[in-house]
Each structure stands twice: as C-alpha cells, then as structure tokens.
Amino acid sequence: MNNKLILFVTVLLFTLKSSAQCAMCRAVLESEEGQSTAKGINDGIVYLMIIPYVLFFGFAYFMYKKYNKKSN
User: Could you tell me if 20 and 27 are in contact, meaning their C-beta atoms sit under 8 angstroms apart?
Assistant: First the structure.
C-alpha cells in the first residue's frame, strides 16, 4: 500500500510540472509569426518518440535471432 502511495504522488508531481512547462512552450511557439520554431519542436518530439521503439525492436530482433539459432 505504501509503495502505491509513493508512486501516485511521484506521478502526480511529474504530471503537474510537465503540464506547466507545456503551457509555457505553447505560448512562446504560438506567438511566433513564421512557425518555423514550432515545426522544429514538433520534429524533435517525433525524433525523441521514435528512438525507444527502434531500440526495443532492435533488441527484440537480436533476441529472436539468438534464440532461433539455438533451436535449429
């Protein structure tokens, strides 16, 4: 029970902090005329989002190959 409470409080604190940062970034990016910075931020977010998937599937592929060799 105690571990669940600590996890809940930690998640709540990180959520509140990230929400405040998001509002500040949004205000700065919406005030720009050319929107080139906003496009750059969006590309950076997509880049950061793809990296864990590539690492996971790369790891899964090598594990599959490793265990597939042993069974043959």
Answer: no
